[in-house]
Specification:
mainly alpha, 2 domains, 5 strands, about 10% strand
Length: about 230
């Protein structure tokens, strides 16, 4: 289905462990490894590192407590908000070390490959139908032939590669930048992907930027930008 704007739809927020789509044991082990490596004890701190909402972190903590891997420490060493703290039991530390022996990965909960594939399709350029108003707004500062925008619109909306040629200085780069500005340059990529039980790191701080919190829905239950 074509859309008339270039807004990229953020991944839907997870509301439970089931929404994450990962094996529960893998999620539990990532939680244990993260607690072991980072010494984070509060739900709010783990939420930031695991990049999943607090209620999902709490679900994982509750399961780990039922299995004797995590125990509550109370609020004695908690932050100023009086938040409940948790720590690994001896069995939890042993399990974390065993899990680290199988995979050193810890931190942001990976996104299943199938979910990532669905997000790629949602933000594909082939779902965008460029309008003349968008192109004019992005290239209004350029002096262009009157019929050029009429040619660019269908070319961009086709969702295929565009070949621009000509001598140096005739505006190829400026037009390309204008197309980029018209399309919008924000896409969502996960910090890591899970495929066949393996974790593949995607996020690279050199080429990627975490979306600012002010761009997120304050009522959302998952930090979309971090996943």
């Amino acid at each position: 289905m074509n859309i008339q704007n270039s807004t990229v739809v953020a991944p839907p927020p997870a509301r439970s462990i089931a929404d994450i789509g990962l094996n529960v044991v893998m999620m539990r082990d990532i939680l244990l490894k993260t607690m072991f490596r980072t010494n984070r004890e509060e739900i709010s701190a783990l939420e930031q590192v695991l990049c999943i909402p607090a209620r999902v972190v709490q679900e994982l903590i509750d399961q780990a407590r039922d299995q004797g891997l995590v125990e509550a420490t109370g609020t004695l060493h908690a932050n100023s908000g009086g938040e409940m703290g948790f720590r690994l039991t001896d069995a939890g530390k042993a399990r974390a070390l065993d899990a680290l022996g199988q995979s050193e990965y810890y931190g942001a909960m990976p996104v299943p490959m199938a979910e990532y594939g669905a997000q790629v399709k949602r933000q594909s350029i082939r779902n965008i139908q460029m309008t003349r108003a968008q192109l004019t707004g992005a290239m209004g500062h350029l002096v262009l032939p009157p019929d050029l925008l009429d040619q660019l619109g269908p070319a961009v909306s086709a969702g295929r590669s565009i070949l621009m040629y000509g001598p140096p200085g005739n505006g190829k780069s400026s037009i390309s930048n204008g197309i980029r500005d018209a399309l919008g340059d924000r896409i969502y990529v996960p910090r890591a992907i899970e495929y066949a039980g393996q974790v593949i790191t995607v996020y690279d701080p050199i080429v990627h930027s975490a979306a600012s919190e002010e761009h997120e829905d304050p009522t959302a239950l998952r930090r979309n930008a971090n996943r």
